[in-house]
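Entry:
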Amino acid sequence: MFSQKQTVPVLEQDISMREALCY
């Protein structure tokens, strides 16, 4: 359960970095 909760923020940060690279 804790692992999944920590994966949520990590995924959000990954998307933000990918969006910055796309732009």
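Residues 13 and 19 are 10 Å apart (CA to CA).
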